Amino acid sequence: MFQNLQDTIMLNNGVAMPCMGLGVFKVGDGSPVINAVTSALRYGYRSIDTAAVYGNEVGVGQALKKSDLDRESVFITSKVWNEDQGYESTLQAFETSLKKLDVEYLDLYLIHWPVAGKYLDTWRAMGELYKQKKVRAIGVSNFHIHHLKDILAASDIVPAVNQIELHPLLNQKKIRDFCQLNNIVVEAYSPLMKGNLNLPVLVDIAERYKKTPAQVVLRWNVQHGIVTIPKSVHDYRIRENSQIFDFSLSDEEMAEIDALNQDKRFSSNPDSYDF
Predict the structure, then answer these.
(1) N or C: at which end does the chain have fewer Cβ atoms within 10 angstroms?
(2) Integer CA distances (angstroms), 187 to 83, 97, 120, 156, in order
(3) Where are the domains of the chain?
């Protein structure tokens, strides 16, 4: 059980990853992302999740420099975009991300989406980056079980992380179980359902603990051992999202939230994504 914001989970290669971080999807480069990351680091977040396609790696790097924190104390994730997938182009895309972030290495590099016909070559390139110690861990994002099986069959490197859309309305139990069996850490994006939190079960539980429905959902995530990366550009929300370690949900409350599942997505299904 995670006890505080900086608690970590051990990845399958022995690297420690913080249990919670800040996601910066659709946060503008420059002052918007610099301010968001600065707030997060001030409140104790030690994990920042960006991607090449977000267009804000430069700002993330600037906020990291501005923070005066040691590079080793902040876990930085980025992702290779679909158009850059393939062996050589992935290697080049990685170098571009490093330059934009102005860092010497990444903590985690992910394949953003499973582009058919490309993701196995992309994974080969990721393995090369890992062997060269340019990245501390490699993983995937938006991978279904059949995509993961392809990787496991083709490579001796097991993905450290599978970052997927995951929340009470899409609890991804089958993928979570598969990942647990294969020692792959599950990381939740869009954990707050893009603001669709006005569900009676969540509201009732929140009132019980004098918390917000968002805090209840994030607590549900961490009690399941799921790494989570809520996104916000608002200082008070970034702080509020971190204040989930002073209460615990009962087994009954966890089950109530589990039962909300509708396999409902707010993002795209990887099997029908328009690449």
Answers:
(1) N
(2) 23, 21, 21, 22
(3) 8-195+226-231
3-state secondary structure the chain: CCCCCCCEEECCCCCEEECECEECCCCCCCHHHHHHHHHHHHCCCCEEECCHHHCCHHHHHHHHHHCCCCHHHCEEEEEECHHHCCHHHHHHHHHHHHHHHCCCCECEEEECCCCCCCHHHHHHHHHHHHHCCCECCEEEECCCHHHHHHHHHHCCCCCCEEEEECECCECCHHHHHHHHHCCCEEEEECCCHHHCCCCHHHHHHHHHHCCCHHHHHHHHHHHCCCEECCECCCHHHHHHHHCCCCCCCCHHHHHHHHCCCCCCCCCCCCCCCCC
Instruction: Specify burial of residue 52 (Cβ count, 10 A radius: 0-12, 13-18, 19+).
Output: buried
Cβ proximity of 126 and 154 under 8 Å: no
pTM given for the model: 0.97
Class of domain 8-195+226-231: alpha beta
Residue 224 CB-half CA count within 13 A: 28
Q: Which residues are catalytic?
A: 54
pLDDT in tens, 3-53: 899 999 999 999 999 999 999 999 999 999 999 999 999 999 999 999 999
Q: What is the pLDDT of residues 85-105, one digit of tens each?
A: 999 999 999 999 999 999 999
Sheet holding 185-189, edge to edge: 22-23, 47-49, 75-80, 108-111, 138-141, 161-165, 185-189, 227-228
d(CA 79, CA 189) in angstroms, rounded, equals 13
Rounded Cα–Cα distance for residues 85 and 119 (Å) = 7
